[in-house]
Write a structure and sequence with these properties.
Largest sheet: 7 strands, mixed
Strand content: over 45%
Order of helices and strands: EEEEEEEEEEE
Helix content: under 10%
Radius of gyration: 13 Å
Shape: globular
Number of strands: 11
Distance between the termini: 39 Å
Structural class: mainly beta
């Protein structure tokens, strides 16, 4: 079971940008498909974006299309979520999930990190 570490969250004003990072502890994510999810207290974890194992395909929730971009670095040692034009409704704790065989597009697929908090103020 891969250990994941998310980073890059913080407080930002509406319209601003943040870049989240997801990394495997002690390993790269080159053999994993990776997804980003977000969750607020009392609500179900929501799919945000995903990238396939080899980085050839990406998937986005309708709510973030055109604003968020998921990508990996050269060797997919890290997976990023670039978030632009942030809205208060984007406020949530963001988690990444990684799986060797399935693309994490629904909650419950893959191993999860501890998350990083994103707060967008009006």
């Amino acid at each position: 079971q891969v250990q994941l570490v998310e980073s890059g969250g913080g407080l930002v004003q509406a319209g601003g940008s943040l870049r989240l990072s997801c990394a495997g502890s002690g390993r790269t994510l080159s053999n994993y498909a990776v997804g980003w999810f977000r969750q607020t207290p009392g609500k179900e974890r929501e799919f945000v974006a995903a990238i396939t194992r080899y980085g050839g395909d990406t998937y986005y929730a309708d709510s973030v299309k055109g604003r968020f971009t998921i990508s990996g670095d050269n060797a997919k040692a890290m997976v990023y979520l670039q978030m632009n034009s942030l809205k208060p409704e984007d406020t949530a704790r963001y988690y990444c999930a990684a799986d060797e065989f399935r693309v994490p597009v629904v909650p419950g697929i893959g191993s999860w990190g501890q998350g990083t908090q994103v707060t967008v103020s009006s």
